[in-house]
């Protein structure tokens, strides 16, 4: 599947991939993941970094800009110095700060040319007759569907590029604005999050943040890690229903495909995960675009059922905030209201590598039901923990968490094993791209939007409170003088869907108190944690309980007692006496505590106005009614079965999907099923892959 992907550097052969990939440069080209070495490489060095010694980064908003009334050319996307580099940081920021140009078009823009065309021609050693600026495939088949009906109301633009320092490009685009003169905000000068890093000079700004996993660790090389804008904090799109948005995604990655430190493809296609979007803007696996190009994704932001349910927009539960405490009503099924999404690369055969490399952003959907204003009690807004300074989209107490296992090489650079087929398992769990950070919280309720951003690792999370002495339910390490108690909380949403009831994770729902179900790759869990039950200075921890011995599947969860006492602990070990750790002994190193919460008292006069999830537990109030089908619809539904496996494949095509017509490999040209709008279908999917 990856034949020829990495050829193009010094030798023009596959050897370029090995040359760039340090772990495999030592001759270990085919190692598969394993219990002792989860990544298939040596343990990632920590450079003396200690857990819970750096402040967790909050997400940085992309911002929203109204569509221009007119379009005037500015400077083009800056060209890098050569084929193995990325654009100058300041020049790229200046470019992204310009108004949108050229004007978005119904069909792909094939008139304007890629500004990197001369560099690409030099690299290829031949002229290009055509090099369109837009990477969307040409023609009517890839035109924006129903564009007049769902014309974008605003846009944002970003460039996928190599790791670099944040120069403050988006400081002025943050909805919270870093300060408020009227209502209290945690992002204002008095708040917990006015300082982004906990270091001097970061009050009310992200400017100056470098990309490193911990202050003790090396800076990330621009060829190792590729993010939106090339910067941290990780990015967040905040978008209301009923407001179509255009995302112009620029590809500012190296022209030389082998300039990647051994993994990741410089071609991109962006998928808004779970979005109700048209095919041309859905991140189709084969609709990828190249360095120097852009792709215009248009997301209509409509409710499912727009054409068939509530077509007169008479139901106020189907709507979005009007900015002044009211609701703008829209068509569609309010029961399908979404909440927490993300978008990421969807490149054919390279999704895992490109996501691992940094192509992942989160997206919060705002609606009449999920407004992001806990104080507005209109009988429709659920008043999830958020804040009250803004009419919608408060994030004071609404926190996005990107949780992903990663690995890095002996130089501290992000590393991926592209030569194993069981799934890449990193040996350290990062939160918002940071190694074991700490996060300050008030003694009140918080909402956490938790994304499993790993590419092969499953998680099972638990929440515990550390207490002094031995009086807790579970002992700490011998001689530590601490023990731990389980902390109950509530699950309110799963995979972007608000649940009918808030599910108490207190031992009454089939799981031990304080534990979540297993969280799959790309899955989102939204939870509410009440810190008001703890005193200022208390510490709580998120813990991963799920062991992996390889990338095919997880093992059984490890008990909290074994984890917290450290009788189970993965320790890097030097087995060949060369002075470098070769493997882990004692367990999976990603099992354990990874995020510390430090409790602070509430500001004087401030109160928690958010909903009490206990009122919405099963048998109580309903948060969001769930769509249902009649017995007649279910009886007459068309049924399809799909079987995922390895046994039907070959060495060239090991994974297949089998249906009534036979077994098939992934082929973007083939349509396996074509359901009709308004019909009911029941799909059964069977996993016979052994993983």
Explain what this protein looks like in three dimensions.
6% of the residues lie in helices and 25% in strands. It is mainly beta. Among the domains are: 31-49 and 407-616, Immunoglobulin-like; 631-688, no CATH class. The longest helix has 8 residues, at 89-96. It is globular and about 75 Å long.
Annotate the secondary structure layout:
Blueprint: H1 15-20, H2 22-25, E1 60-61, E2 65-66, H3 89-96, H4 117-124, E3 154-162, E4 226-228, E5 235-240, E6 245-251, E7 270-273, E8 294-299, E9 319-321, E10 327-329, E11 340-345, H5 351-356, E12 360-366, E13 398-406, E14 428-431, E15 434-435, E16 438-442, E17 445-452, E18 461-468, E19 474-475, E20 482-486, E21 490-494, E22 497-504, E23 524-530, E24 539-544, E25 546-548, E26 554-557, H6 560-564, E27 571-573, E28 583-585, E29 592-600, H7 631-635, E30 638-645, E31 656-659, E32 662-664, E33 681-688
Parallel strand pairs: 1-5, 3-6, 5-12, 13-17, 16-29, 30-33
Antiparallel strand pairs: 2-3, 3-4, 6-8, 7-11, 9-10, 11-12, 13-14, 14-15, 17-23, 18-20, 18-24, 19-20, 21-22, 21-23, 24-29, 25-26, 27-28, 30-31, 31-32
The oligomeric state of the chains shown is: single chain
Backbone CA Rg: 25 Å
Number of helices: 7
CATH superfamily (homologous) name of the domain at 31-49 and 407-616: Cupredoxins -  blue copper proteins
């Amino acid at each position: 599947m990856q034949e020829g992907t990495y050829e193009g550097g010094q030798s023009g052969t596959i050897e370029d991939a090995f040359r760039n990939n340090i772990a495999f440069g030592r001759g270990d080209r085919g190692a598969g993941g394993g219990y002792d070495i989860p990544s298939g490489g040596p343990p990632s060095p920590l450079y003396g970094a200690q857990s819970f010694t750096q402040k967790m980064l909050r997400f940085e908003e992309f911002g929203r800009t109204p569509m221009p009334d007119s379009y005037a050319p500015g400077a083009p996307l800056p060209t890098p110095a050569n084929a193995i580099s990325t654009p100058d940081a300041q020049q790229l920021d200046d470019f992204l700060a310009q108004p949108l140009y050229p004007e978005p078009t119904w069909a792909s823009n094939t008139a304007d040319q890629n500004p990197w065309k001369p560099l690409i021609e030099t690299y290829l050693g031949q002229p290009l007759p055509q090099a369109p600026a837009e990477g969307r495939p040409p023609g009517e088949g890839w035109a924006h569907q129903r564009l007049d009906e769902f014309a974008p109301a605003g846009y944002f633009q970003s460039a996928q590029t190599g790791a670099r320092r944040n120069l403050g490009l988006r400081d002025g685009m943050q909805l919270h604005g870093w300060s408020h003169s009227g209502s209290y905000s945690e992002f204002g000068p008095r708040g917990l999050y006015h300082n982004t890093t906990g270091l001097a000079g970061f009050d009310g700004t992200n400017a100056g943040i470098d990309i490193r996993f911990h202050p003790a660790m090396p800076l990330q090389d621009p060829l190792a890690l590729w993010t939106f804008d090339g910067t941290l904090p990780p990015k967040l799109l905040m978008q209301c229903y009923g407001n179509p948005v255009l995302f112009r995604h620029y590809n500012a990655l190296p022209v030389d495909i082998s300039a990647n430190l051994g993994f990741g493809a410089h071609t991109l296609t962006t998928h808004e995960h779970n979005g109700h979007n048209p095919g041309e803007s859905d991140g189709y696996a084969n609709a990828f675009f190249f360095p120097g190009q852009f792709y215009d994704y248009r997301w209509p932001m409509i409710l499912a059922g727009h054409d068939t349910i509530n077509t007169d927009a008479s139901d106020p539960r189907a709507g979005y905030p009007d900015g002044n405490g009211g609701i703008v009503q829209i068509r569609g099924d309010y029961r399908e209201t979404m909440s927490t999404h993300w978008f990421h690369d969807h490149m054919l055969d390279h999704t895992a590598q490109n996501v691992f490399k940094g192509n992942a952003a989160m997206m919060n959907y705002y609606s009449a039901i999920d407004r992001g204003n806990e104080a507005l009690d209109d009988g429709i807004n659920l008043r999830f923990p958020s804040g009250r300074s803004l009419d919608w989209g408060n994030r004071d107490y609404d926190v996005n968490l990107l949780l992903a296992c990663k690995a890095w090489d002996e130089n501290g650079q992000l590393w991926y094993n592209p030569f194993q087929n069981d799934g890449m398992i990193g040996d350290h769990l990062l939160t918002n791209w940071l190694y074991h950070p700490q996060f300050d919280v008030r003694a009140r309720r918080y909402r956490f939007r938790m994304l499993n951003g790993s590419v092969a690792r499953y998680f099972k999370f638990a929440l515990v409170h550390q207490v002094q002495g031995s009086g807790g339910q579970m002992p700490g390490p011998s001689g530590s003088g601490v023990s731990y108690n389980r902390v109950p909380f509530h699950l309110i949403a799963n995979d972007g869907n608000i649940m009918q009831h808030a599910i108490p994770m207190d031992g009454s729902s089939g799981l031990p108190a304080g534990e979540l179900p297993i969280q799959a790759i790309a899955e989102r869990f939204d939870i509410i944690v009440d810190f008001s039950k703890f005193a200022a200075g208390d510490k709580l921890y998120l813990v991963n309980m799920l062991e992996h011995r390889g990338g095919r599947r997880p093992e059984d969860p490890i008990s909290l007692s074994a984890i917290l006492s450290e009788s189970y602990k993965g320790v890097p070990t030097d087995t060949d006496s060369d002075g470098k750790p070769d493997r882990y002994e004692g367990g999976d190193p990603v099992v354990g505590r990874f995020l510390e919460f430090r409790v602070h008292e509430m500001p004087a006069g401030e109160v928690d106005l958010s909903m009490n999830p206990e009122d919405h537990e099963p048998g109580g109030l309903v948060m969001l009614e769930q769509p249902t089908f009649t017995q007649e619809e279910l009886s007459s539904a068309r049924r399809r079965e799909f079987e995922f496996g390895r046994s039907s494949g070959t060495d060239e095509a090991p994974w297949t999907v089998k249906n009534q017509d036979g077994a098939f490999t992934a082929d973007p040209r083939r349509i396996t099923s074509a359901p009709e709008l308004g019909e009911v279908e029941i799909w059964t999917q069977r996993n016979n892959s052994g993983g």
